[in-house]
Amino acid sequence: MQAKKIGKSENDGTSLQGKRVIILGGTSGLGFAMAEAAAQEGATVVVASSNRAKVDSAIARLPDGSEGQVLDLFTEEGVGAFFDCIGEFDHLVFTAGEALQLGKLEETSLEQAKQFFNIRFWGAFIAAKYGSRKIRSGGSIILTNGIVGLRPVKGWTVAASITGAVEALTRALAIELAPIRVNLVCAGFVKTELWNGMPEAERKQMFDQVAQKLPAGRVGEAADLAQAYLYLMRERFSTGAVIVVDGGGVLA
C-alpha cells in the first residue's frame, strides 16, 4: 500500500490555514501588509486601529471574512474590553505607532518624549498583558521595532530609546508569558505611509539616496517585512528573538 503524503497543515501545525491573527495597527503600512499576507496564507485576520475610516478602508481591501475593530490603545480599559470581546485567537501582531518624534535633544520636551512612549511602548505592553490571556496553545506575540536603536543617528534620541525599550520588553515577555512565544521584527528603512507627510519629490529623492547606501540596493517594501512576521508565526521554536529586516542598513 502506498503511504499517504501528508502536507504541512496536517502534520506539524506550521500552516496559517484556519488560524486567527489579530493585528493592532493593521490598517496601514506594515500592519496592513501583514494582514494581507496572513489572509493569503488562509488565516482569518482582525485589524484594529483608532481611526474608523481607516478600519473600513482596510476591510474593503482585505478578503471576505476579515474583521475590523476600532481600538484606542491609549486606555487600558479599552484594550482590556477589546480582548474580552474578541475571543480566542492564535497570533497577536503589534505594529501600531504614531508619527515619529524627531528632533534635537535640546529642542525635545519631556512631554513630547513621553507621548512617543505612550503607544509604541506602553501600547505594546498593555496589548501583551490582555491579549496573552486569549492566545491559544502554540500561539505567539510579535512586536515591531526599528533599527535606530542598533545604529542611532543625531535627532533620533527618543526614537532610539523606545526601540531599546521594546527590545528589552520582548525578551522579558518571552520569559513572563512562556510558553507563548514573543518575538520582535526590527525594520529598516521601508516605504510606508509614515513618509507621506513629505512632498513627493523630496520623498523620492530620500528613497533614492537611501537605496544607494544600502547593500541590498533598494529601499524596503512593506511586503518584505510581512514575510518576517509570517516566518515567526509558522516556525514554533523561536522566542525572545529579534529578526532584523533592513537591507543591510545596520551595516551601511
General description of the model:
There is one protein chain. This protein has 252 residues and is α/β, with parallel strands linked by helices. The protein has a single domain, classed as 3-Layer(aba) Sandwich (Rossmann fold), CATH 3.40.50. It has 8 helices and 9 strands. It has helices spanning 8-11, 29-40, 52-61, 76-86, 110-131, 157-176, 200-213, 222-234, and strands spanning 20-24, 44-49, 67-70, 89-94, 135-146, 181-187, 190-191, 220-221, 242-245. Strands 3-2-1-4-5-6-9 form a 7-stranded parallel sheet, sandwiched between helices. Strands 7-8 form a two-stranded parallel ribbon. 40% of the residues are buried.
Structure summary:
This protein is of the alpha/beta class. Helices cover 42% and strands 19% of the residues.
Which labels suit this protein?
single chain, 252 residues, alpha/beta, Rossmann fold, two-stranded parallel ribbon, globular, disordered N terminus
